[in-house]
Write a structure and sequence with these properties.
- The protein is an alpha+beta fold and about 300 residues long.
- α2 runs antiparallel to α3 and α6 crosses α7.
């Protein structure tokens, strides 16, 4: 989401996420376990609910558990910003309940709708306790890509990298592609067009860097390393020279390729007129340059 500046883009991605889970052949909370979940939803003690929910989840396959664990960890993180988004655990449960745990046919919709919402809300709140088994699979990383403890460690690393007593790395110059307002004390704020120095990658999403003699974390999707345009221009120039060198001259004689094979790239006439089996020699395929690394 870091590179999405338009709210409509975020809404589209959220819609795709819900659509994916809605169209699964079998929902995350399938009909097979529906009654078991409904029976534990109204348990008054949270500890007892967590224990019983964990026992039910352990009956699932590991891929099923990994996907559900990741999703609820994300939704739990999202709920931490309810003051800004108005999406507290219960409101999120109302949005995702019908998708993740549809009510089977023949069940009372009025009675079970509230139970389903409560179930999803409790899974969201207690997800870390329910999914505490050590199962190999992707783990959701909290917002900003780093938790508080690791964030402090990265800040220490930034200081070490720029300390005069340490061997200095050659920093990369970069330009800000968008405005960015820091979310924590360890991040740097900047405006579009600002010049930044990048020392090294903290992870796939963040650079350790500096702006105006202040060290901190810089989101990778918001900056572009200077000189990339020149590299791209050199690549295109070399590509053009290669094309000119390999392009056959107009007066050059060459024999057409004769083939018995038809393919999906053959045009309709070749399929309809199989007696014409002579194809023109295809031009050499030149690899297209990769898109520049931008946000």
């Amino acid at each position: 989401f870091a590179c999405m500046m338009d709210g409509n883009q975020i809404n589209s991605v959220a819609g795709v996420l819900k659509s994916y889970f809605r169209k699964l052949n079998e929902p995350l909370f399938s009909e097979e376990y529906f009654d078991q979940f409904m029976n534990i939803t109204n348990i008054g003690e949270n500890v007892e609910f967590v224990a019983k929910a964990h026992d039910i989840v352990r009956q699932w396959s590991e891929p099923h558990i990994v996907v559900t664990r990741y999703l609820f960890s994300f939704l739990n993180d999202l709920s931490q910003y309810s003051e800004e988004t108005q999406m507290d655990p219960y409101n999120i449960a109302i949005c995702f309940g019908p998708t993740l745990c549809p009510i089977p046919e023949g069940k009372d919709l009025v009675q079970h709708t509230n139970l389903v919402n409560d179930l999803i809300k409790n899974f969201l709140i207690f997800c870390d306790d329910i999914f505490h088994d050590d199962i190999d699979g992707p783990l959701y990383i909290r917002t900003d890509g780093l938790d508080a403890g690791h964030d402090d460690q990265v800040q220490e690393d930034v200081t070490k990298d720029t300390n005069e007593d340490q061997p200095k790395l050659q920093p990369e110059e970069a330009v800000a592609l968008y405005d960015y307002k820091s979310g924590t004390a360890n991040e740097l704020s900047f405006n579009k067009g600002d010049k930044l120095l990048l020392f090294s990658k903290a992870n796939d999403h963040w650079w350790k860097g500096r702006k105006d003699e202040v060290n901190g974390l810089i989101p990778a999707q918001y900056v572009q390393i200077s000189g990339l345009d020149e590299v791209q221009e050199d690549f295109l120039t070399e590509k053009k020279q290669t094309e000119n060198a390999t392009k056959p001259r107009e007066d050059e004689d060459y024999e057409p390729i004769v083939t018995e094979m038809m393919s999906f790239k053959s045009n309709r006439n070749l399929w309809e007129q199989r007696e014409n089996k002579t194809l023109e020699r295809p031009k050499k395929n030149i690899m297209q340059p990769p898109n520049p690394v931008t946000a």
